[in-house]
Here is the input.
Amino acid sequence: ATCRPGRRKLSAASDAGHFMLILGKPGGGKGTISGKVLKDFPMFSHLSTGDVLRQHVRDGTDIGVEAKSYMDHGSLVPDELMIRLVVEDAETVIQDGKSLLLDGFPRTYEQAVALDETLDVDLVINLDIPTETIVQRISERWIHPASGRVYNCSYNPPRVEGKDDVTGESLVQREDDKPESVRRRLAAYDEVTSPLVGYYEEKGVLKTFHG
Here is the structure.
């Protein structure tokens, strides 16, 4: 997919702002690290493309209506539309003189190439977390369905094993939190998204952190 003809390329000047991406496997701590970046570097504005896309759909914007037409048919939102969404929000951030931390896009090599036609990416943070560490972390997560309270056997266990602290009701494990489901998601990530690491490494903007 390519961007619409005539769209100017956004480039954050070094004294005004930067475009930064964060990559990493599902459950690898992108949300946690993003929070730390935003706390330590308040000039950054966080843009989670999934959250922004859902907001556009709720608000019924032109992009939201177009995206919903694909989503209602079970289709992926096209790259060109996702890039329009990113650019629209990025323009607002740059106009405010802030920097942008982009989370959730690009997910594929093709999307990264297409995004480069529109944005100059200054830095890419890659979180390299061992698969089995993530499997253990996620598979220890249990929830109380009625309230949405989340527990973890390692660092946030319930007071009584298998029971919600407030109601005493039984906790459940979501199907996609079970070890076999987690491994499938991580394998899909490796197949589709890992080439991004090589792409940005060649461009000289990648910084990998092992955990």
About this structure: The radius of gyration is 19 Å. The beta strands are 19-24, 44-48, 99-103, 123-128, 141-144, 149-152, 206-210. Residues 1-8 have pLDDT under 50 and may be disordered.
